[in-house]
Amino acid sequence: MSMERWRPRRGLTPWSPSRDLEDLQRRLEDFWSFWPSLRRFPFESREWVPAVDMYEKDDKYMVKAEVPGMKEEDVDVSVVGDRLTIKGEKKAESEVKEENYYRSERSYGSFFRSIDLPADADPDRIEASYDDGVLEVTIPKTAAVKPKKVKVSARKQPKSAKQTKPAKQIKPAK
């Protein structure tokens, strides 16, 4: 249930499109105040973060990050503790001198992605490769600890506890 501001009106008032438009604008501003991250459209935002996929194979984890238009020396992959960090900088092209831009949607700038590693990841053997705008990080799993089979045995009760005298049965009288 939403609350609405009370607006006293004296009798019937004529329809005013500008008043309704102002009311709609106020309601939209209230709506967008709850989700400020949705307020900007992608082409208005100058923040750039590469898309990342992470999946598991039998003996390793794979992380793939899209970093198109970057050179491998512009990307840095590091591990601190149980956290994998991918960072870099996508530099803007500055060779265009006499062109008139109507719209520029490509993003530039530095980025930073941090991913928590699973408990069985081996941070000492992580490898990274870069090909056609895709950074691929291979995270091997540690040697699996095989579960140990534990035999379950039943405890045997002493014979004196097993042999109890049955209770006497009382026969009904005739």
Describe the fold and architecture.
It is a single chain. The protein has helices at residues 17-34, 159-162; strands at 52-56, 60-66, 75-80, 83-90, 109-116, 127-131, 134-140. It has a domain at 52-94 and 101-140: Immunoglobulin-like. The protein contains 2 helices and 7 strands; from the N terminus they run H-E-E-E-E-E-E-E-H. The model is unreliable at 39-45 (pLDDT under 50). A hairpin with a 2-residue loop joins strand 6 and strand 7.
Largest sheet: 4 strands, antiparallel
- Beta-strand content estimate: 25-35%
Tally of strands: 7
How many whole angstroms does the radius of gyration measure? Answer: 35 Å
Measure the end-to-end span. 80 Å
The number of helical runs is 2
Secondary-structure element string: HEEEEEEEH
> Percent of residues in helical segments?
10-25%
Spans of at least 5 consecutive residues whose pLDDT stays below 50 are 39-45
Write the layout of secondary structure elements.
Layout (H helix, E strand, L loop, with lengths): L16 H18 L17 E5 L3 E7 L8 E6 L2 E8 L18 E8 L10 E5 L2 E7 L18 H4 L12
Antiparallel strand pairs: 1-2, 2-7, 3-4, 4-5, 6-7
Keywords for this structure?
4-stranded antiparallel beta sheet, alpha+beta, 2 helices, Immunoglobulin-like, 174 residues
